[in-house]
Amino acid sequence: MERIADPVMSICAAETEVELRRVVQRSIERFGFQSYNLSFRKKDRREFMSEPTLTNWSGADLARYADEGWVEKDPLLEMAVGRPGRPMVWTPAQWASSVHSTYGEYIASTGIISGATAALDERPGSLSAMTALSFADASRSRSDAYAIQIIGQVAVTRAAVLGIPGADVIGASYLNRLSSRQMEILGWIAQGKSNADIAIIVGSSKRTVDYHVSEILRKLEVASKAQAAAIYSSQ
């Protein structure tokens, strides 16, 4: 929980687009990734890759991807089309013996060793997902992919609050789901307070604050009911 709690709090506290991009970068690095691309509610594959909502990929990276025609061949984009499955971790080698072998070769040629991809939205007819990439050899688990999904969902919500183009989540409608106590706790989270600190400030037990934090994550749709329960039970 501590590994994902700090990134969530930092993203919620970002005050500018530049700061948000910097915090998202630090957040993925916490899980061993160095690069990310987040696109939200794009109308088609080409827009998804050419006009990302938040990314640290260079223009040259995006241009190469488009020029070589990978936009129609990328198997990872299937996860972004309005019917997302569970987030996944992957390596280029896993496509070696499949119809996507050439895509695996392309990914390997860029120096990517592993990645995590997670869908961010279920709206039919649009594409929303975040991919994080690693150029370092490291073991991966599905929990890394869930972390990337949570980071992406929180980042999109914060981007909407900051008025960043391409993040058309209505932040206020999400906040209206929270109780007054949860709004108070969220305010302290945004100021970088730990759950233990918040418990002292609001005169409650840490376990109660842990529960409210898991409910905040669930209501803001940055974690599923099962994920939120797992977060609460891990405190």
Structure description:
Residues 171-235 form the HTH luxR-type domain. InterPro entries: Sig_transdc_resp-reg_C-effctor, TF_LuxR_autoind-bd_dom, TF_LuxR_autoind-bd_dom_sf, Tscrpt_reg_LuxR_C, WH-like_DNA-bd_sf. This is LuxR C-terminal-related transcriptional regulator. Keywords: DNA-binding, Transcription, Transcription regulation. It holds the Pfam family GerE. There is one protein chain. The chain has 235 residues and is of the alpha+beta class. The chain has eleven helices and five strands; from the N terminus they run ααβαβαβαββαααααα. It has a five-stranded antiparallel beta sheet. Strand 4 (114-119) and strand 5 (127-134) form a beta hairpin. Helix 1 (2-13) runs antiparallel to helix 2 (17-29), helix 8 (180-190) crosses helix 10 (206-219) and helix 10 (206-219) packs antiparallel against helix 11. It is elongated.
Q: What do the pLDDT scores average to?
A: 82
Please give the order of strands in the largest beta sheet. 2-1-5-4-3
**Count of separate DSSP helical elements:** 11
| Main structural class | alpha+beta
Order of helices and strands: HHEHEHEHEEHHHHHH
Largest sheet: 5 strands, antiparallel
Helical fraction equals 40-55%
What would the principal axes of the Cα set say about the shape?
Answer: elongated
How many DSSP E strands? 5
Distance between the termini: 7 Å
Radius of gyration (Å): 18 Å
The low-confidence runs, each spanning 5 or more residues with pLDDT under 50, are 230-235
Strand content: 5-15%
